[in-house]
# Entry
Amino acid sequence: MNDTMSKQSAAWSRDDFEARLREQGKAYHIHHPFNVMLNTGKATPDQVRGWVANRFSYQVAIPVKDAAVLSNCPDRDVRRRWIQRILDHDGFEFGATKDEGGIEAWIRLGIATGLTREEITDFRHVIPAVQFAVDAYVNFARRAPWQEAVCSSLTELFAPEIHRQRLATWPEHYPWIAAEGLQYFRNRVTQARRDVEQGLEVTLDYFNTEVLQKRALDILKFKLDVLWAMNDAMATAYGVNA
Ligand code: AHQ
# Structure
């Protein structure tokens, strides 16, 4: 193998590649000033309601994004696992077994913060820049190779922590939000962990040269920027209390 080819095909080990993916957690939106304000109890009720109403546009986009991944993926074994994500969000009813799903749970979070179902679902509070960031994510998943769209979901490597943080801090800081309103976050701790198992497996398998692995880091950075930009827009619209 000539030097150029050996350079191109040289790959980081799986452990090293995973470590570099996880290292990008330092740019996760748990560190955004708007999120820090939320999780340290400094947000006003209007800022909490603004966050829930705007994040609804992200939540309803997730199953659409996941359906885009499925539509681009020819691998039945991958689809059989990936389709769970759509059920998690849209809910399902199979005979006696039914689940309202995460989108309904998010609406209930909104109602617990004092929003009406109508003003959540009609997007009246959604900031244009939040919608643009959400649309960038969905459109990426529609156009990219399905393995790249899978890789972009790996911000969920860091999601269990942010959900656990909310569950640990919101009841104390925001006692005016009924406890059942936080059910969405409880569900996501386990669902995110299960999602990541498949997401990481596909990513570590597919991105198998150094050039591809660096592409994976760029994809993850893009998705981290999607989440960060949503918080930037909300900070601009609602302010950040120090
Ligand atoms: O509630 C979230 C969710 O369902 C998902 C799906 C996943 C994806 O496919 O990109 N990412 C994601 C995330 C959710 N909640 C965010 C939060 O801060 O509450 C975190 C976000 C993510 O880390 O990408």
User: Anything to note?
Assistant: The two ends are 57 Å apart (CA to CA). The chain has a mean pLDDT of 96.
